[in-house]
Structure formats: C-alpha cells, structure tokens
Amino acid sequence: MNAIVTLSGVTKRYTRGKQTVEVLHGIDLEIAQGDFVALMGPSGSGKTTLLNLIGGLDQPSTGSVAVAGERIDTLSGSKLAKWRARHIGFVFQFYNLMPMLTAQRNVELPLLLTSLSAAQRKKNAEAALAVVGLADRSKHKPNELSGGQAQRVAIARALVADPTLLVCDEPTGDLDRNTADEILHLLQTLNREHGKTIVMVTHDPKAAEFASHQMHLDKGLLVGTTVAA
Ligand code: ADP
Ligand code: MG
C-alpha cells in the first residue's frame, strides 16, 4: 500500500495536576493515498485526539506519526506549525470561520502564510469557493450563510492551499440530515474526482457510509477496520 499516513505504537497521555490519563493505548494504522477514511467510535473514545495527532495539531506521548514520508512526532512547535500549514486542511464541527470576514477572505486566510500575491490569493480563494459550489457567496459574511454554506466555506478554506490531507472532525455534527448528506457528497467528490485523501471523524454511521474505509476506536484502541462494499 502507498501509505500517506503511518502511525506505529502511538500512545497519548494527558496530565492534569497529579493525574495522568492515557487516552490512546497503542495505535498502529496506515492510510493509503487517495483514501477516504471514517474514524468512528463512541464519545470519549479518543477520535479527536487521534485525528489531532494525524493532523499535527498535537504530538503523541510515545510512538511515531509519519505523514507523506515525514516524521511529525519529532518536529518542534514552530516547525510543526509550518508543516501543518503546508500539508493539512482542517474542517471542524462548528466551521470556525472569522465572523468579520467575507467568505472569500476566510478562504484566503491560509494563503497569507504563503508568498502568493494578493491578486493570486483572491483568485485561488474564488476557485476554491467554486469547487464547493459557492462562487456566488464570496462577499457574504458567516452570519449571512446557512450552516451548510458555512461548512462549505470552511471546506474551501481547508482546500485552498492544496493540502496533502483533509482532516475533518464531525463535519456534519451540527447539520440536519439533508444538509449533512450534501456536505458528505461534496467530500466524496473531493476524494473521488480531485484525489483528496480525507480522514473524517464521525459518530454517525450514515456519514461513515460515504467513506471508502471505516476505522473504529473504542476506549483508545482500534477495534476494527471495514472496507466499503
Ligand atoms: P472523542 O473525540 O472520541 O469524543 P476525545 O479524543 O476528545 O474523544 O477525548 C478522549 C478522552 O481524552 C476523553 O476522556 C477526554 O476527556 C480526554 N481528553 C481530551 N483532550 C484532553 C486534554 N487536553 N486534557 C485532558 N484530557 C483530555
Ligand atoms: Mg471528538
């Protein structure tokens, strides 16, 4: 398999005061380039923790995390932040858009860290908004958008710098069924037609059906992997 993500013996412990809690107990996994993985499991099973390790938002207590051939568990904070900006597009449950900025400005944000000119940033942001079907909403602010549209803007922002990996944490958790299905279809299209590798946390079995693989976490351990029929 042409693995784009490889985790070996990954544990994660959190310390609060005198108490240490181990949340992930030794995770080994591989994700192939071009895959669309749904990471499932009950609340508190460690899904967000694991996703954040894959996306370089956090680092493991032990074990190794490699993405696109690079070990990220050993990168220092500032190197990790740079690495993240280059390689990861994040999508969150509550969109995390900047309320004062238009859709287009929100989508441009990841490009401020690059050497692109203002004109090129605008062009790329508009192209990303077109991919998610929102070319006609570029001047709208988040409070002028529906939940589904706001999540599309967030997906455009995640895509705009052409990341190696799209990492989504409960992207449909705040949406009604129909809107959720539209977002899931969009993610599926990004995967199938644009070749984006996607890791999506969800506790919704219907959402997971849109993925090509399902991984199940239970109490900090992977308990099974299913391939879509
Ligand atoms: P899930 O996303 O599956 O609901 P999480 O990964 O958010 O689960 O959390 C798994 C466990 O780790 C929970 O028991 C949670 O309380 C704990 N946890 C998560 N983040 C922290 C943190 N920053 N400090 C301490 N404990 C945490
Ligand atoms: Mg979570």
CATH homologous superfamily label: P-loop containing nucleotide triphosphate hydrolases
Mean pLDDT: 95
Biggest beta sheet summary: 6 strands, mixed
CATH class: Alpha Beta
Ligands (ions, cofactors included): adenosine-5'-diphosphate, magnesium ion
Shape: globular
Overall tally of domains: 1
Radius of gyration: 17 Å
Structural class computed from helices and strand pairing: alpha/beta
Cα separation of the termini: 19 Å
Question: How many strand elements?
Answer: 10
CATH architecture descriptor text? 3-Layer(aba) Sandwich
Order of strands in the sheet with most strands: 6-7-8-3-9-10
Describe this structure in words.
The protein has 229 residues and is an alpha/beta fold. The chain has a single domain, classed as 3-Layer(aba) Sandwich (Rossmann fold). It is 32% helix and 30% strand. The strands form two sheets. The protein has a six-stranded mixed β-sheet, sandwiched between helices. A four-stranded antiparallel β-sheet has the order 2-1-4-5, with helices on one face. Strand 7, helix 6 and strand 8 form a beta-alpha-beta unit. Helix 5 packs parallel to helix 6. The chain is globular, with a radius of gyration of 17 Å. The mean pLDDT is 95. The structure holds adenosine-5'-diphosphate and magnesium ion. The site of adenosine-5'-diphosphate has 12 residues, from strand 1, strand 2 and helix 1. The site of magnesium ion has 2 residues, from helix 1.
